[in-house]
Design goal:
The chain is α+β, with helices and mostly antiparallel strands and 783 residues long. The chain is globular.
Length: 783
Amino acid sequence: MKIQQAMGIFRKIFFLAILCALFVPLHVRAQSAVTLTAQAGFRGFCKSNKWLPVHVTVENKGGDVNARVQAFYKNGANGQTTVGMDISLPATSRKEFFLYITPEALMRNFTVSVLDGSKTLAKTNLNINCSADSSLLFGILADTPSNFSALNNVQPMTGDVQTAQLDIDDLPDLAQGWEMLDALIISNVDTGTLTVEQKQALELWLAGGGKLFVTGGVQWQSTAAGLGNLLPIQPTSTKNTTLTALSTYGMDAENLLEGETVAAAGELQTGTNILVEQDGIPLLVEKEIGFGKVYYFSADPGLSPLDDWDGMQRIYEHLLAFRSPKPSWGYSAWDTYQAGSALSTLPELALPSLLYICCWLGLYVLIIGPVNYFVLRRKKRTELAWVTVPILVIVFTSLAYFAGYIYRGSKPILNRIMLSQGWQGVENAQTTALVGVYSPSRTIYNIESSEKFLASPYPSINEGLQSSNDWETIQIDQGAVVPDVHVEIGGMKSLSYDGYLPSLSIRHDLTYVLSDQTPVLKGNIINTSGYTLKSVIVMTSSGWEILGNLAPGDSGKVNIILSNPNSVSTSRYTLNTALNWDYPSSEDIVERRHSAFFQAVTTSYNDNISANSGVYLMAWVDDDIPTPIALQGEEANVTDTLFHIQKLTPAMETTKLGKLTLNSSLYGWESTLGNTVLASSYNVPGGGYNIRFRPSLPIHFSEVDSLTLNIGTNNMPQQVHPSIWNFQTETWQTLNLDAYSSVKVPNAWQYAGMDGEILLNIQGDPNGYYDVTAVDFTMTVQP
């Protein structure tokens, strides 16, 4: 009995030992060999449907591992969205990189894991705070972030402000990952540690509309070390100075700055605009880069007397809370129907011509009818018609099928259309590509991009390219791979890609001519690229000028009177007609593609092209510039279309020393309604809506002689009630429109704020129906 008990105890101990040997070591190794650390975005902040950088660090303390790191979440179609990257982890190694995902609205968390095949080596769940796009996100890269606590109280026109304290390592290596950030403040941090990739991403982010605020002060050398030519001034030394000019600029007479501080001084760069100057020392200067701005503040806000001056909040609000003016195509809200039409405009997908169909049907009727009858009658076998007719039907059906097969081809087709937004002085252009994959047979493709283009679902076309509404991409060194894309016979799947390509080379001598008359834009544009530019247009907020086709070396003359914008001069349908793009009836398939894509990217309120401010060159290049997207292991027929838009920076010329006439065509704006200053009674909120105008040129004036406001409406002017902000009394002044929808503002100088900005509020009769068809102004100033 004792022997049996001993044997039973021995078996239990042996069984437990086997369990320990099998599971405990493996469990320990899985937990300790590979560790994972991940951080979402800018310290957890994000914006829906914009690229979110996920900073991942993987460390391997065990043997060699080939792993896949992936971020995944459940998408709105009840599938799974996954973005992964394959990495090699040698023994005792550490890898640090970014994954890029596009979070959906209301998304609050996702998972990052490390996989070895189907085995999970490490996993972490991340919480994120995705805000609406109307919120502003300010990143603070400073040795003492608390010096910028005033940023938390900044009030933008719409939404709110969130701040994120950042380190150099938090800044992504691709510009796509910066688009959630609205402004970056750098103070007393060694920017010399920025990588080459981070510097390139910073410049492209600025060109896309970002704002950079850099401080000087005692530690000016390390702060400016890695920013190079991005700064409007190259600091070389420091000087002691007072700051009374800053108080005057901030229009804060009750909180005058007293005492001296240390300010950085140096050489101003080309294109610099001095906003505040004290005794010959530039205190605050700006430089425009594309849609964005770089501000250099020569003092340190953390030092006396600025550390306890309340006026810095007003300065921050003025500089950083004003959203960079962008045209309608600068946003992601495209007309998806027109975009889908552009992707479908392929010769292989077009219906055969009417003549071809009529000839085919005529031949069919002729043979199956009279020819068949006379042949059988000649042979005296008319009773065989019940055999010959079905045979002829089968023969003609087979011929039609094979003719269609040959017409459409046996290769897959890639229709690749790119919108390229370039900026004068910036080497690369922001590029969004739409790619339609047409398949002649039911099959599966792997789609690969290069040039660091990132892939994402294109809204309202198809989000689930793989089975079960899943979306999967694998990021590689040069781009991304979208695997296992299912395409049916004769079907098409569509994808969207974001990246950057070299901008087209354009030269010009355009000049704004300012006088006591309406401003004029004049000069010449020269095509210095190696490509023929088709249907070239010079676009302004006041209208356009069509230059036609420009071969390499050709030039076009521009002369546009910059009157206040109106619905006729900005109608995209009017421009379509002027270009002879009679879509969709045009038989020219290239014209149809141009027309559909143009309407897709320029969609805005009331079908007007909203250029906001600035001068743009628009042109098309067909089949000469390849889109960096291809099918892995497949030879495809490719159609490439590039719609290039380049923001130009004209010079400024004043013809007289006396008064100047300025109008809203020279101003950029932002509105609480979004990308429009126009409205109808149904979308005007109870308290009305606000519009802030700010000069888009470095115009400095000492006095405002007159200001006339015009509010266009399709109904009685009395149904629209505008007000204008008085910057001296800080109150709203109600205005009454005359019979011509205009009003001359009394004491006009009181209504020009910092840098000449103008703030309006427009309300309407709550019991009436009206359309606000124009909001503009004309003012005369003294230089």
